Amino acid sequence: MALAKRSLYTGAEITWCRLCGNFGLMSAFAWAVEELSESIPLEKFVVLSGIGCHGKIVDYINLNSFYSIHGRAPATATGIKLANPELYPVCFVGDGDIYAEGISHLLFAAKRNTDITVIVHDNRAYSLTTGQFTPTSPVIFRGKSTPEGPPEDPINPVALMLEAGATFVARGYAGYTDHLKEIIKQAILHKGFSFVDVLQPCVVFYNTYELYNRQVYKLESAGHDPSSYEEAYRRAKEWDYNREDVRIPIGVFYKTDKPTYEERV
Amino acid sequence: MDKTIIIGGKAGAGIKEAGRMLLGVLANLGYHAFGYVDYPSLIRGGHNFVSLRFSEKPVYSVDKKADVIIATDGRSIQAHLQDAKEDTVWVINEKEKLEGAIQVPFKEVAPGFFKSSSVLGAVLKLFGIPLEEGLPFILSLPEREKNEQIYRDAYQATPTVFELKKAGERKGDVLTGNECIALGAVDGGLEFYIAYPMTPASPVLHYLAERKGEFGIKVIHPENEIGVINMAVGVAFAGKRAMVGTSGGGFALMTETLSLIGMSETPMVIYEAQRAGPSTGVPTYTGQSDLLFCMFAGHGDFPRVVLAPATPEEAYRLTRDALNIAWKFQVPVLILGDKHLGESYYLSKVRREKLVEEPKLWEGNGEYKRYAVTEDGISPLAFPGAEGIIVKGTSYEHDERGITVEDALSVKKMQDKRLRKGETLREYILSREDTVAVGGVKGSDRVLITWGSTEGTALDVAEEMGFKVVRSVFLEPFPEERLKQEIEGANLVISLECSASGQFEKLLKMHGITPHRSLKKYDGRPFFRDELIDILREV
Predict the structure, then answer these.
(1) Chain A residues with at least one Cβ partner in B under 8 Å
(2) Per the database record, which ranges form the Pyruvate ferredoxin oxidoreductase beta subunit C-terminal domain (chain A) (predicted)?
(3) Domain check: are B96 and B6 in the same one?
(4) Which CATH topology does A21-259 take?
(5) How deeply is B98 buried, as exposed, middle or buried, from its count of CB atoms within 10 A (0-12, 13-18, 19+)?
(6) Phi, psi torsion values for B71, nearest 5 degrees
(7) What is residue B109's predicted lDDT score, i.e. its pLDDT?
(8) Domain contains B294
(9) At residue B491, what are phi and psi to the nearest 5 degrees?
């Protein structure tokens, strides 16, 4: 517990924009880790990231880390978990990072039920590369590479992960840090592959705070049963990442138990 | 006696197996032997063949023209007409016709399965080898009773043409380069073998997967080569020894992560078994045209090791060393092999001995800095999970703790650290005795200079043609001085390689060595002995 007394932040200069959704996400995670450190020694955490604004989180968080490359963090995390099953790998990835370049690694991590956690900073824009559309951008998103809007529809990662076999599927909102903290705690404690898509507004290229504040509702308040796959799928399909006039569920969609990859290989 | 025997037939008919068993019999009789395996990229049908050469003297290659051709089907007769000499003895299936050929019932135990037993029976009788010499091999096959019967029938039906005497003590076991790569890795402390199937590296995956329990290792087959190498990075970062294996196309996918390995200073061994390229190329055939790609793959500057074994013994020893070098210097080590080394049959004496050297580990004083700046450029290793420390690995340019930096001073400082590590590595490699191998007629002023499996044919022609054979075992760091010493005063230096553009010759020139002649073969086949003799006669 020697580390517990230290700050969870490295002190590195934080270069995210003022009001960026990444702050809420990072606070929720740090807060979750602080609470989890009662049972999990801090040195057992390994945080990983891909490339993009989100990736900087590994510089700011004072835990073991591996700053991976674009889209590959889940593969690296799987290797870490295989080599040392006592560790808790947590991947921070971006929507452009993981749903485009890294989609195969994400799908296979879910398929394998490898015991890692993947937290997606889903701002629905390539922001560090100054504003292009990503796999979850809506068709109204006017990006630098698609000034008329993307000529393709967004994917629904929550439905995708349910189909891929993830045993813990959730969506959080960086604007509701206390709620997000609870989801992250559950995700890390879940034995098996945990997936959390975090709605994380980019104030410069796609400011969705107002949209999410208006449309988001909590699954647990709606009496959702996360043990039912059918219910989870129905809730996942309520919002298609495109429309702005429907309610957006956040919380734990699905949770089940299955042997992990590490146990099976 | 020095003979080349071709055994041809459909894929799936047990041709490879027949060749391997025959090599086993010849080994037991005290002969040196070598087997070249030729098969197209298909599962059943087509035309496969094994070409074997055996002799009282060491052999590492086969002749193109065979003394005996065993054709188990009609297509094999047509395919090998070009490989026959005037006095070639043909042994063909009883259903086929060829003037002067011996007809034998090449029967299968089940439709489409194992003509190997009948082939072995026929060849053994042809050379007057007692029937008992083949029995242990036949009895280890499935369906042993049926196999034994057709073995005996074929033996019975074949006349004896040659009288093969026992040549002495057994010279070694029948082994492939790939098997020795696998064994070398295990004895170098391998804990994880991670690979996506790709010919000609796949046999290593299969060999280790079958024996993972015995070896106490994990064998993982992920979604693609990018998953492979990034998973291996995770394994190594967490402190376990990993190796990956692939061929050119798979390695192309891994090159992004090769740079990550360079930057994050992750110990990694990559086995690259070359096929004939470019692109998908000729998947089941051989080549040496990934040389410059492996030397220069990856973006940015970072130190690496590229080495190329030429024999199974060396494949074993160098793979074992590769794991230790990777961990000692926290660099990628590329083992550059090819289909010819990987899948040919060699008689080899590999003496296994575990050798796991401890890397430079952190001693546990003060704050741990993953990228601590040191005089030799090597930062002490520690792994996540250890109490009281934080280990930060990264793809980004970083400070000593592993936190991103972009300012000019810091960027240069870390580049300098890695350069110094490269220099330490260079001194270590170049001080080794085995950077260059020398064989053939050592006093000759005529030199064949080569690398990798191509050395085999060079050695087999050296005495007859009066050549010294010089081989670069390490390609990066390049043993320039040693090579220059070995060719000093030579009147004729000929570079020999399986690359259309002469990649090895280019590498030599880069280091100030200009061969007088350059011989290149690039049809997917290795140099054959008789072919090389003919070429060298004209030089």
Answers:
(1) 2-3, 10, 12, 41, 43-44, 46, 51, 56, 58-59, 62-69, 72, 75-84, 86-87, 89, 104-105, 107-108, 265
(2) 202-265
(3) yes
(4) Rossmann fold (3.40.50)
(5) middle
(6) -110, 110
(7) 76
(8) yes
(9) -85, -25
Note whether A134 and A125 are within 8 A (CB).
yes
A-chain residues near B218 (CB < 8 A):
82, 265
What is the tally of structural domains in chain B? 4
Q: What is the CB neighbour count within 10 angstroms for residue A193?
A: 30
Q: What is the CATH number of the domain that holds B296?
A: 3.40.50.970
How many contacts, defined by CB atoms under 8 Å, are there between A and B?
137
Q: What is the pLDDT of residue A1?
A: 40
Decide if B454 contacts B291 (C-beta within 8 A).
no
Measured between CA atoms, how close is A60 to chain B, in angstroms? 8
Q: Quickly list DSSP for B15-81.
A: HHHHHHHHHHHHHHTT-EEEEEEE--S-SSEEEEEEEEEEESS------SSEEEEEESSHHHHHHHG
B138 to chain A nearest CA, in Å?
A: 35
What does the buried/exposed string (b/e) look like for A127-143 if buried means 16 or more CB atoms within 10 Å of the residue's CB? bbeebbbbbbbbeebeb
Looking at the structure, tell me whether residues B164 and B179 fall in a common domain.
no
Q: Which residues pair with B338 in a beta bridge?
A: B274
Average pLDDT on A79-99 reads 98
Among the candidates B171, B193, B224, a domain finishes at B171
Question: Does residue B427 register a pLDDT over 60?
Answer: yes
Which of B367, B370, B403 to substitute to test the interface with A, most A CBs within 10 Å?
B403
**The token pair that represents A244 in the structure block:** 């702005």
Average pLDDT along chain B? 97
Is 0.90 surpassed by the pTM of this model? yes
User: What's the token pair of residue A34?
Assistant: 């602080």
Tens digits of residue pLDDT in B22-44: 999 999 999 999 999 999 999 88
A51 contacts in chain B (CB < 8 Å) = 395
For residues B396 and B530, membership in a common domain is answered with no
**Does the pLDDT of residue B71 top 90, yes or no?**
yes
Q: By CA distance, what is A65's nearest residue in B?
A: B392
**Residue B110 pLDDT exceeds 70:** no
Tell me how close the Cα of A214 comes to any Cα of chain B, in angstroms.
37
Per-residue confidence (pLDDT) for residue B142, from 0 to 100: 86
* Domain match, B156 and B192 both: no
Q: Peptide bond before B130: cis, by omega within 30 degrees of 0?
A: no
**Nearest Cβ partner for A64 among B192, B227, B384:** B384
